[in-house]
Amino acid sequence: MAEYDEDLGSITRNDEPWLVRTVSVGSGTRVAAFHDAVRDRDGRCVITKEVAFEADYGFWVGFEAAHIFPLAYERHWIDNVYSRWIAIPAASGGSINSVQNGILLRSDIHQLFDSYHIAIDPDDNYKIVCFRRNGKGIAGDHLDQRFLEDPLRPVDQLLRWHFRQAVLANMRGAGNRFLNATSLLVRM
Questions:
Q1: Do 21 and 14 contact (CB within 8 A), yes or no?
Q2: pTM confidence score
Q3: Closest to 64 measured CA to CA, from 24, 120, 122, 21
Q4: Which of 45, 145, 169, 188 is deepest in the core (most CB within 10 A)?
Q5: Burial 88-101 (b: 16+ CB within 10 A, else e)
């Protein structure tokens, strides 16, 4: 483990692994209630704020309910008792399918979120952090207050978990950074 100082503060490099994600869209009755709960709560992409205008007609093309903690790692979820963070039980499929483990995203943003290219930092006023070039114009934006005041919103612990995974996934190797918001490194 190597430590070094920059004008950003002390940063510790380590070999902590991250959970590699693949882009996937869950289906079946197990996650249908999850999708419905996230869609009902959000009604728009929480990152870009683009509204799903035809949602009233059941038309959600271009919008996807994303798990913050990936469904593919449910065994890891269970083994590490991440369910302790969930206050609102899922209608079906176990605690990993709670509305508190989901956000509605545009399909393209969902891919970036699942591949840890973007994340939400709950400890910096819910700032959206891009770990690649900011072609979407979202880096530095914040989640809106309406979303944050919703009692069904995702819990900070899961957003923090995802943000940490994104940092671990992107801050490897020779120290190459593609980060737009480097102030987050001080806390890591």
A1: no
A2: 0.81
A3: 24
A4: 45
A5: eebeebbbbbbbbb
